[in-house]
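Supplementary Note 2. Why include the ligand at all?

Several targets in our set were suspected to adopt different conformations when bound, so apo predictions alone were not considered sufficient. For every target with a known small-molecule partner we therefore ran a joint prediction. The input for alpha-D-glucopyranose is given below.
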Amino acid sequence: MIIRQYIKDFENLGFGMFVHFGLYSVLGKGEWAKKLLAISDEEYYKLAEDFHPEPDWADRLVTTAKRAGCKYITLTTRHHDGYSLYDTCGLNELDAPHTCGRDLVREFVDACRRQDIIPFFYHTLLDWHEESYRTDFREYLKYLRKSVELLCTNYGKIGGLWFDGMWDRLGDDWEEDALYGCIRKHQPDAMIINNTGLSALGALGHIELDSVTFERGKPQPLNMDGAPKYVASEMCQVFADHWGYAKEDLNYKSPADMIRDLVLCRRYGSNLLMNVGPKGDGTLREMDAAVYHLMGEWVSLNGEAVYEPHPCGIEVENKKEDFVLKKDGTYYLFCDHLPMEIDPNVGREEEADYRDVFRLDQKIRKITWLDNGENVEFEQKNGRVTVKTVPYTYGRQLVVRVAKIETE
Ligand code: GLC
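The joint prediction is reproduced in token form.
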């Protein structure tokens, strides 16, 4: 099996921010608005007149990601509407340099470099604007490759390319060898990801692809038996129902759900790519910023367990939500659903099993909670470990707690 180091490095990034940003951000009805609301070209592309992100949009976004513990950001450099945030160097005029006099991808990349975040580029494969997509597919593919080549040559080293939309012409020959070959030529260590969409979660594809995707799905353990190449996995998730900014989308998941999504991804060695849809001026909706902020609080307490520790096959026998990750000789026990000790007049007392039982032969030296350093009681007999978890004391509820297990 081929094992490439940059794929292993990608897995250690653990948590990334997905950014859907483009003309649709001005309209505020989601990134599919043009198509699903049947907006004419004339009306839709006029949005460009009002697309003037604030000068520091990229820095602010990167700061939000950084504070939350993200190690990379994947930006929609061109989405299905065909508008590019980067300089297409004359390939067409539907790009940010022509409509707002700025290369927004350059601004993004520069902001990432300043704050030590790895930039990744989302790029659409399908195109609602480019006529050749419908009338001369071969010609369109050349245009697509030239576009991608610009992204690979004009912005320094990038983390990877994230394609989306192949599902729109599934039976057709997308000349994937040529597309991925062009990336490998200029960016040999870039991750190449091609979103398989909702219909084929976790499916492996072309040999050059480096990660499977679980769009809005629950990540699954990958079975790599007999696979020619080791690949990573990544789940992208959205806060509400739209990836691009939608003013009237109130259907938010809770921050606790988002923390659990991150935890679940890491359980299976998957990365979480959590989306925000900035408004047309590049600022975030308050709710998006707030959820990111809360996740950051969780990551700042438990970050040690988030990036490098990986699945190790240890099962917690009495609780299916709880699990163990491993890094070198250190193990991390993730404990979900610990209730809070509470007066019955203030809240409902819940029954709980304050034990996590699993097998571990290595001798344990000590166990501590990552969030406050307190010791955790445990018993280890003949390779069977019982960890005594405790309820939250009033004033704290951290959704998932992590106990660090150090061995001799
Ligand atoms: C879907 C949508 C697209 C979105 C993507 C994110 O493929 O077509 O709008 O960018 O999911 O994963």
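The longest helix spans residues 137-153. The longest strand covers residues 400-407. Comparable summaries for the other entries are listed in the accompanying table.
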